[in-house]
Design brief:
Blueprint lengths: L24 H8 L4 E2 L2 H11 L5 E4 L5 H7 L5 E5 L2 H10 L6 E5 L12 E6 L5 H10 L3 E9 H8 L7 H6 L3 E9 L4 E2 L6 E8 L10 H11 L7 H6 L4 H11 L12 H11 L2
Parallel strand pairs: 2-3, 2-5, 3-4, 5-6
Antiparallel strand pairs: 1-8, 6-9, 7-9
Helix pairs in contact: 2-3, 10-11
Length: about 280
């Protein structure tokens, strides 16, 4: 499984390399495309199990196809994207008689978004993680995205540090974020500098906010994260009547001194509802 499929300068990890002597074209291509293959069979199985069964799953960065084949064991159809022509060709030849697998040589980020329900699962490059996540979040028919990302990114987005990022809070009404476990660097070849983690983003069948309130919610969260006043309570008192903010924090059971990032997304929703009655 490789962290490669698009954008020649993306990097799963930046590794120090001595000035080029003795490197083959494949070595240079592997470095340029940031190819860190998932070679641990146990980690491959964990990823496939975390992704679950689907009628259609899109895989960014199929590489040598370890995860592709594992996904095909539980999914009706796997569309595997790989930018490296050598690996794309090998995987296509390897799976030409498997009707469950379609190999596409190309950039996943330019893929047509399916209209039918679909999932995304893949071992993705660190430097374009945010672009892949944004692609997934914008896809109306996405049911889930199971992504092998940098450990720090997965912890930040899932609240594992006890802090919640603005992106997580903004998307919380429509998507849940969960860290499903660590994958050590030794599971990859070449071995990257840091560990990875399985991040699961799941679309909620029923959004936590009714339709038509997206703009108000975004404005509320954006304003709350400005940091004005030093806390969410202080910031909101600059926009709403003080007595209403005080009452909302009391009812939501949020301490007035809580730093913005430490307010759980569910509490954000409660505060939003109370202040927008």
């Amino acid at each position: 499984m490789a962290h490669s499929f698009a954008h020649g300068n993306h990097s799963h990890t930046q590794r120090k390399v001595k000035n080029g002597g003795g490197r083959s074209d494949r070595d240079r291509a592997r470095r340029t495309l940031s190819q860190n293959f998932l070679v641990d069979p146990h980690a491959v199985r964990r990823m496939a199990e975390a992704a679950g069964s689907h009628e259609l799953v899109l895989e960014p960065g199929a590489g040598e196809g370890a995860l592709t084949l594992a996904l095909a064991g539980s999914c009706a159809r796997v569309v595997a994207y790989e930018i490296d022509p050598l690996h794309a060709g090998k995987l296509a030849a390897r799976t030409r008689d498997d009707d469950r697998i379609e190999v596409v040589r190309g950039d996943f980020l330019t893929a047509r978004v399916p209209r039918e329900p679909f999932a995304v699962a893949g071992n993705i490059p660190y430097s374009i993680t945010s672009k892949i996540v944004d692609w997934c979040l914008r896809a109306p028919a996405l049911t889930s995205a199971t992504l092998l990302t940098q450990l720090e990114y997965a912890r930040k987005r899932s609240g594992d540090f006890g802090r919640w990022s603005k992106l997580t809070v903004l998307t919380w009404p429509g998507h849940s974020w969960e860290l499903l476990g660590h994958v050590g660097r030794a599971s990859f070849r070449p071995v990257p500098a840091v560990d990875s983690a399985i991040l699961r983003i799941e679309s909620r069948p029923v959004p936590l906010l009714p339709g038509g309130r997206d703009t108000a919610w975004r404005e509320f969260v954006e304003y709350g994260f400005t940091g004005l006043g030093g806390s969410l309570h202080a910031s909101l008192r600059m926009r709403y009547a003080s007595h209403r903010v005080d009452a909302a924090f009391a009812e939501a059971r949020v301490d007035r001194d809580t730093v913005v990032a430490f307010v759980h997304p569910d509490r954000w929703l409660t505060l939003f509802e109370l202040l927008h009655r």
